[in-house]
Amino acid sequence: MKNLSILHYALKLSLLLIFIPASPQTLFSQIIVSETGSITFIQEAVDLAAPGDTIEVESGTYKEWNIEIRKPLTLIGIDRPLVDGEGEGTIFSIHADDVTLKGFDIRRTGRSYVRDYAAILIVESTRFLIEDNRLDDVFFGIYLAETTGGVVRSNRIEAYDLREASSGNGIHLWNSKEATIEGNFITGMRDGIYVEFGEGMKINGNTSEANNRYGLHYMFSDGGIYQRNTFRKNGAGVAVMYSENVDMSHNLFEHNWGTSSYGLLLKDIRNSTIEYNRFYRNTIAIYSESSSNVMIRRNDLELNGWAVNIKSSSARNHFEENNFIENSFDVRTDSPRNNNHFERNYWSAYEGYDLDRDGIGDVPYRPVTLFSMVTERSPESLILMRSMFVRILNTAERIAPVLTPKTLVDEKPKMTRIQ
Amino acid sequence: MKNLIHIIKNEWRTLLRGKWVIGYALIFLVLAESLLRFGGGGSETLLSLSSVMLLFVPLVSMIYGILYIYQSREFIELLLIQPVNRGVLYWGLFLGISTPLMAAFMVGTALPLAWHGILGVGAAESMLVLLLGGVLTLIFASLGFVLGLLFYEDRIKGFGFTIVIWLFLAVLYDGIVLMLIFSFGHYPLERFVIVVSMLNPIDLARIMVMLEFDISALMGYTGAVFRRFFGTAAGSLTAAGMLTLWLAAPMWWGLRVFKRKDF
Predict the structure, then answer these.
(1) What is the domain extent for residue A192?
(2) Domain of residue A158, CATH code
(3) Chain-chain contact of A383 with B47 (C-beta, under 8 angstroms)
(4) Is residue A92 part of a domain?
(5) Scanning A201, A241, B141, B181, which has its CA 20 to 30 A from the CA of B220?
(6) What is the model's pLDDT at position A290?
(7) Distance (Å, rounded) from C-alpha B81 to C-alpha A196?
(8) Which chain A residues are Cβ-neighbours of B55 within 8 angstroms?
(9) Is the pTM of this model over 0.90?
């Protein structure tokens, strides 16, 4: 009786095994594109493929553009095939969910003042993965419009147009939700990463350098996170505007140097945090206009022209436990009134003492010097920087403030650099 | 020529015996060393160093120049009795005391820069600061000489003028420039500011240091104008020419006074 039941189960199991396919490959077919094979165009393979199929593109040069993908597909480049758009238009145009594009070299999109030609265009899709592609000499790099979710990872995007008006953006997100942009390298574009009307973006570990305008241009996008990115030598640094609940931390902003360059430009930013970032050698490290309730904490601001330029339209922002080291000017503002809060920062220019040895200076520090107010009024006077007269003026003003904001003061300046 | 070298050598020997110059070098050595050690050791330390240089080198050089004239009156008068050309005697005395002073500043500052490795990293900036310090030493030592010769009998007046001139060039001059900028803020002032700053050797030196450290990017449009002026070959030549003029004028004046003076 017992043997019979075992036999019964074994029979059932073997029946089941017959009906379960051995692996997904047997269900979805695989199509190979190669220069010498039967299929020589990627578009041909895409048309032939059934939804869910994988297309493997072997190494070689494929002169194609406007490859339209309207079904879930996985496209994989084997040994980096080169797709050359020959300056004609958009190269990959994806209009379906669940598309993966991986391992391609893509070159020469079209250029236009009217249409945004991109190397990879993704419209109204979700669950896509764009990974490990190298884009060279493109107008727009990866263009996401009205997508939800999706991952853009470890791509390299480069272009060579030096004019702002005629170059496109590296990774362009318009009206996208919850995209993950990570580990990409972008250089020589107009804006490295451009986000407009986004929601819940995760922009992590990217490097955006030597772009014509902004390293990151972030507008009307609430609830985003960008962390551990490097923004270097961009024409105008990074701009974050008209957004709420943005988390910016552990980024590196460096060498954004020029007459209209910023490390980080904040305009109309509310309820956001800027933490553990490093600002090194920027003309203006943090510029803030009409921002409120932003927590700026534990950042290193070192060797910048102006560490903070805060316009009087900004209110209730908190600067806490930051290191201000050897900046030409620590804080600049345009009004004797101030509605922002500075506390427990380390200022390398602080000259006070700490008699009770609690690590906090006994004399408050006033980061706005008289000279920085003077230069705000007449920029020519900057030629007097570091002169003895200016030093004496600053000291006199610091002892008895008349023109500088009385309330812009760090009551508890730290004596040593915060680690 | 032989006489000139002989006088210069003699001056050097006397100075070294006095140990004063060595002390001066040591002050800069300690200063540069401590700035490098506590200031992070970056090439930015050069900025602090140059501020100190711009403030003290003119004062010390000028006081040293005038002090020399007053202290070695008898010696100078003794030399004047000898069959030596007055011009040769003047150059011998001036170069004899100003070159060791210049060398003291340069060596005292350069040594810490060298062993902290900044001479290699920021070679251009270091050289500029050292060179400007040297030129300022010569300019102000000769100004001291002139004042000493002009107020040969009235020492109080001589020292008084020294302090006033230093105070004016190092501090008050910038105050006046600032006032002018403020009063005429509605006019395009860039050219005017360039001309005015060229007239003061301390300002000129300060601006040259500042532009070398690329602070011009802070100045927006104005910065671009300054940069275009001081950054081009023509601008640099003008600035260098102006410094040379500043170098030549007091020396020539001193020579004139020395030659005509009835000691």
Answers:
(1) 31-235
(2) 2.160.20.10
(3) no
(4) yes
(5) A241
(6) 95
(7) 89
(8) 388
(9) no
